[in-house]
Amino acid sequence: MSETKLDAAVTRPGEDFSRVALTPEAVGLLRKLWVQHGPLMFHQSGGCCDGSSPMCYPAGEFITGDSDVLLGLFDISDGIQPQPVEFWMSREQFNYWSHTHLTVDVVPGRGSGFSVEAPEGKRFLIRSALMENWPV
Length: 136
Known about the structure:
InterPro entries: DUF779. The chain has 136 residues and is an alpha+beta fold. Helices cover 15% and strands 36% of the residues.
């Protein structure tokens, strides 16, 4: 797999830049989880503890609404069959992180029991960086 991050497709009206990316390790784990669980989605809340980690669910298992923002849409496929993965964030958390670019990475350890990667002995983690030339 390439060492290049996978940027999400832009989903926010009026924007022309990606807000979230996946590391190659995250793509690899998501492909494995897709085989086990089918279509997937992320939700990033603003809670403490595990709530501050990106949670990966089977698509549609976490119900989103007006209090959530769709930050990006990934296609983790190898080019044969589309494998879309949405990345959602609570609107309240987005208000704090709106000036950052997020990268979903994978590290050893056990995350929340609600996130599908927990049994793998790995957990998803957000790495953030200030966006350059952020629109004022």
